[in-house]
Design goal:
The structure is a homodimer. The first copy, chain A, contains 19 helices and 23 strands. Chain A has about 550 residues and is an alpha/beta fold. Chain A folds into 3 domains: about 300 residues, Rossmann fold; about 120 residues, Domain 2, N(10)-formyltetrahydrofolate synthetase (2-Layer Sandwich), CATH 3.30.1510.10; about 80 residues, Formyltetrahydrofolate synthetase, domain 3.
Chain lengths: ~550, ~550
């Protein structure tokens, strides 16, 4: 009898005969001498390979999603499948993705290299350390933190920093809730000044955000120097540059700034580079990586999540405006299970056909489609197919798409690789070739901070109004004092809802967005209004994924998801 | 007028035309396809390249030193120079070194890639991140720490661990004294169980020691599983394996276990791999790296420090016994400045000729020479030449060597590269070819713990006796309860003195060695009697080296030392 249990992602990945990365480079038109190999299947791409003309004239496709369930809706899988399909259709395409964060690999979520027959490889390496980018960020960040604490006790060059005002925590790419809130500097005069602090996960580091927006080493150094550290006792702002930290920090990041080249299951190039969380930072890969992909492609597929409201909103207003990018289409990844969830079905019933719940959940998709149009970019719905989806349910979504005049296609990359995303690719090509998009930002950076926040809250989230806590109001004053009102907005919000309340599913209206505080990412160059209870350091579950991960004597890893 | 300011290490390094690492591999007799490249100038060597016959029949030379001044006496520089010279004399030689720790690069000490014209390259990369080995160790260590804290609050698989007995701290490769003593788990029920803890520097991680002693992935996994975590409330020991941590930890270390190949200034192969501190762990590179070097060489030069009492003692009793290695000669790196320091000269006067102080300091050298002979290994004195050494001072050391019947040679690798170490190389060859050494360990692992400690203290350090604190006595009981009495001894002691008191210079006698406590490194497989005030997390100085480190727009780093 045939065993019908589907193969796990890692089992599929390990059956693929990997091509040497030099072969992939040759396919891109590169001399293998031009790349910097990291083992036989990974490489770093020097910034000198970016081709400005190609970037200007290339077709950039953004893949985003509806508001996701906790499991995620498969943006990465859809991005990879779409990219394979575009290559099959003769469009030279590169998929440009974020790097997985190591912490969640051992927690609940697992890795982030796609799934099924739409994966980037070698998935074990990409999910574990990869080429060391996250570690480099961690070291640069924690060096700055150590310099700050060192300065607090310095006798000869003390900046007079008021320890109570220091906002910079330390970072570590491990899910470790016990480090969220800590007291450091205990143990007597030789071991620092006692104060409250904590650790965030590395993806939440401002340096991750900075690296993603930097143009080159000089721009990186300037932004690192601009990191706001806190105030002196006489209320003067202190920046990283006041600690002469930015040179050493930039030196630590000299390789992390270079995008990484790997391959898809079908042997197409994939660029994977960095990626801060979209619920607390801009949530897309680096500007440099996007440009690198466009330098070698007719079509470049990239992704921003969680949902459109977080990832795509920041992609458009922060990244595209900052880097002069102009996307030609946006794919809204949709799953039937998530729409049923938004329509009131319980999480443990999502595999059961339920047209009523699905219909009730549709307004969430509708809102994300409307949002895409606010930026002048034409959306295409990709239904990321699950084995449990019923024909009747699929028909419901197609009917909505027809009614709204939006293109829709099944995305079966998980089960079938590029073959399963041909229809989606054709529809994307149609949108691009007919120049149906004309990207425009939602707000001007030069507007005042409150206006910018309200514009996003009302237009994208559907809020009735925005309320600023007393702390947030003090922060607005600080932003004004520091002359940072012209920065764009990067709202920290739950991904589970269009609102700031994770329980408001579907398409909530009439709600108030509550801004608890506004963080200043002066180096990254944006302001972070924090809404709801955002966590920057995840914890581990009762049975961490690490318990199932193993490696054989021959070096074969199992249990990675 | 000629500028006579000598070039800095990084300036010399940057003038060298690097060979591609594939060229170095070919020189070793390897097909470049067999190595895993990390950029163009670094590579990882798969364990399958180890040749057991070559290891058995090769000539292993250990470079150690007298008790050093805070600046270090140049073991690495001497090792590299000796290796270049041996290659010049037609002996196929590989130098096998430790990886620099990142933390001190930004503190006082700087990097650890040799100096002057005896360096391993690319020094910027080796000193910053390198191939990610330290970061991998950090992640494996901190994953275990997170699993422990996660288990403390687990409702479904709680091991009943008594938080007060947990000995494992977290690690970070940053000099950050504010993390030495911290309180974690604050912030309410969602954020862990409050308890005291702290951070050590990554080189001090037991996992570093484990990786250095492991034979292969399976042995690594077994040792990781054996890490002792603490006790349950009903006094049962808990190991990492009880948290099912060792599989994921080993997966994280799958590349870190592979030695790294780089090149010397003269284009000879250099293997650089790991390296725990010798004052708190075994202080030499990995067994795998040493074997890898021997697999491609007639002569393999490696180093262990700080002084012979710490590094070489552990090299012989722990590493050589564990791995079946048998060194053919030991080079004792000696500087005139350090001997003057031991003879009573102040640190700021060491560049001034002072024969009287030098003569007074000689007993320190004599003791290290006697110690080498206790292991049956013939010592050769290398005088690491400084510009300020006087001929008269050099003559004093040569006179001592003649009196003791010990070979002595100038080591001028810093100023002249391999050319400057030819005399030293000739003397080493003479010792090896006449088979003048017959290595024997100082103690048997099967002796009882107190006897083993006393044997080292009295024979190597010159102590009159050993005193165990009440805590140390309780630890002896624990070791006995856990059945770990058969492990070798890895004494944590200051490197500044042969005794446990950093102020006792020269060759102290009649002192008591005070064992404060005895740590159990059940995974690494040794016991760590801690003497004096050992610090496992360094701090930064008032003006950290990071302030002077910079990188240009083109990526050229300056200020690294």
């Amino acid at each position: 009898m045939k065993n019908t249990k589907p193969l796990s992602d890692i089992e599929i990945a390990q059956q693929v005969q990997l091509r040497r990365i030099s072969t992939i480079a040759e396919k891109m038109g590169l001399d293998p001498e031009e790349i910097e190999m990291y083992g036989n299947y990974k490489a770093k791409l020097p910034l000198s390979l970016i081709d400005k003309d190609k970037v200007k004239n290339g077709n950039l496709i953004l893949v985003s999603a509806i508001s996701p369930t906790p499991a995620g809706e498969g943006k990465t899988t859809v991005s990879i499948g779409l990219s394979e399909a575009l290559n099959r259709l003769g469009k030279k395409t590169t998929v440009v993705l974020r790097e997985p964060s190591l912490g969640p690999v051992f927690g609940i979520k697992g890795g982030a290299t796609g799934g099924g027959f739409s994966q980037v490889l070698p998935m074990e390496d990409i999910n574990l350390h990869f080429t060391g980018d996250f570690s480099a960020i961690e070291k640069a960040h924690n060096l700055l933190a150590a310099l700050i604490d060192n300065n607090l006790q310095s006798k000869t060059n003390n900046l007079g920093l008021d320890a109570r005002t220091i906002s910079l925590k330390r970072v570590m790419d491990v899910n470790d809730r016990a480090l969220r809130n800590i007291v450091i500097g205990l143990g007597g005069t030789g071991s620092g000044i006692p104060r409250e602090s904590g650790f965030d996960i590395t993806a939440a580091s401002e340096i991750m955000a900075i690296l993603c927006l930097s143009e080159d080493l000089d721009d990186l150094k300037r932004r690192l120097g601009n990191i706001f550290v806190g105030y002196t006792f006489d209320k003067q702002p202190v920046y990283a540059r006041d600690l002469n930290a930015e040179g050493a920090m930039t030196a630590l990041l000299k390789d992390a700034i270079k995008p990484n080249l790997v391959q898809t299951i079908e042997g197409n190039p994939a660029i994977i580079h960095l990626g801060p969380f979209a619920n607390i930072a801009q949530g897309t890969n680096s500007v440099i990586a996007t440009r690198m992909g466009m330098s070698f492609s007719d079509y470049t597929v990239t992704e921003a999540g969680f949902g459109f409201d977080l990832g795509a909103e920041k992609f458009f207003n922060i990244k595209c405006q900052s880097a002069g990018l102009s996307p030609k289409a946006v794919v809204i990844t949709t799953t039937i299970r998530a729409l049923k969830y938004h329509g009131g079905a319980a999480l443990n019933t999502l595999t059961v056909p339920n047209v009523e719940a699905l219909v009730n959940g549709l307004p969430n998709l509708e809102k994300h489609l409307e949002n895409a149009k606010l930026y002048g970019v034409t959306p295409v719905i990709a239904i990321n197919k699950f084995l449990t989806d019923s024909d009747e349910e699929i028909a419901v979504i197609k009917e909505l798409a027809g009614r709204l005049g939006v293109k829709v296609a099944m995305a079966e990359g998980w089960a079938k690789g590029g073959e399963g995303a041909l229809e989606l690719a054709e529809k994307v090509i149609e949108v691009v070739e007919k120049s149906q998009s004309s990207f425009k930002p939602l707000y001007r950076w030069s507007s005042d901070v409150v206006t910018k926040i309200e514009t996003i809250a009302k237009n994208i989230y559907g809020a009735a109004n925005v309320e600023f806590s007393p702390k947030a109001k003090r922060d607005l004053k600080t932003i004004s004092d520091l002359g940072l009102e012209g920065l764009p907005i990067c709202i920290a919000k739950t991904q589970k809802s269009l609102s700031d309340d994770p329980k408001l599913l579907g398409r909530p209206t009439g709600f108030t967005l509550n801004v608890r505080e506004i963080e200043i990412a002066a180096g990254a160059g944006f302001l972070i209004p924090i809404t709801g209870d955002m966590m920057r350091m995840p914890g581990l579950p009762a049975h961490p994924a690490s318990e199932r991960i193993d490696i054989s004597a021959e070096g074969n890893i199992s249990g990675l998801i």
